[in-house]
Amino acid sequence: xxxxxxxxxxxxxxxxxxxxxxxxxxxxxxxxxxxxxxxxxxxxxxxxxxxxxxxxxxxxxxxxxxxxxxxxxxxxxxxxxxxxxxxxxxxxxxxxxxxxxxxxxxxxxxxxxxxxxxxxxxxxxxxxxxxxxxxxxxxxxxxxxxxxxxxxxxxxxxxxxxxxxxxxxxxxxxxxxxxxxxxxxxxxxxxxxxxxxxxxxxxxxxxxxxxxxxxxxxxxxxxxxxxxxxxxxxxxxxxxxxxxxxxxxxxxxxxxxxxxxxxxxxxxxxxxxxxxxxxxxxxxxxxxxxxxxxxxxxxxxxxxxxxxxxxxxxxxxxxxxxxxxxxxxxxxxxxxxxxxxxxxxxxxxxxxx
Length: 353
What we know:
By secondary structure, this protein is an alpha+beta fold. The protein has 2 domains: 2-139 and 168-209, no CATH class; 218-344, no CATH class. The protein has helices spanning 30-45, 59-68, 74-89, 118-126, 203-209, 217-234, 239-254, 262-269, 274-285, 297-303; strands at 2-12, 17-19, 50-54, 98-107, 130-139, 141-150, 156-166, 176-181, 187-190, 194-196, 199-201, 211-216, 259-261, 292-294, 306-310, 316-320, 330-334, 340-344.
């Protein structure tokens, strides 16, 4: 990931002092660079982000096109974003202090979110990839801090005070952000509902971006898995195997393209169960799940890599999804009395966890 530009604006609703930076952040500072890089990586790797499509009359989309074409300056655009968000947040009855971080960067959507060493942060800072503009609303949190001072007699004194402007740690989730791809203006975002002037709104997609909201890849994936499980259970197929097959199919196809044909998925998962195939196809036709399942490669890679089951006897088992249909490693049997037996095979050793 390479950071091209970054700027931080401060909205302090406790002291009522708001600061709009007039210059970009100095990314020669190792602490600033590491924090910005971490937040950008988290945004681009967030599994719960929703997709969005700009409305035809979105003024923000026009500003973005102008910026990516080099017709708008970074600082000016960030200040315009800040002025809008500040105006919206100011109309809340009780507004938490927050900082606005705007980042222009190039990165890889498949990067994992984990703490970085200084060396990794340096390498990530220089890497290139798809170009994005990220708008992150970093809500401050109160924290206790020590204070050192002196008495009237010159004696050293310490105390504890409560600070109201602590930025979220790089490991914490950011509740409100937008990520816009430079080439296509494809939108991804996360936001939480806020009550503004008595009306509950999502200020990122509805206010700032002016875009239509679509389900996240994770939500779509979970919806497909739920339908597969329900169909399998209702018509006598093994739901654990069926869901594992669905995950394996999605993980494999997502490596080639993001859009997966739901009907084809059903035929593959229930290849030996024509009744289940029929009912899954009916669910697709009735719109329970979309005909074209959109699952990004990064989501499929991380969500579909393993499958976890729990028996009614309290046993939990997690296994790679590709093992679900490979009898050399795991096999499910149905007993005459309707119970299920699981055989784990080719195990070289067992480690207590």
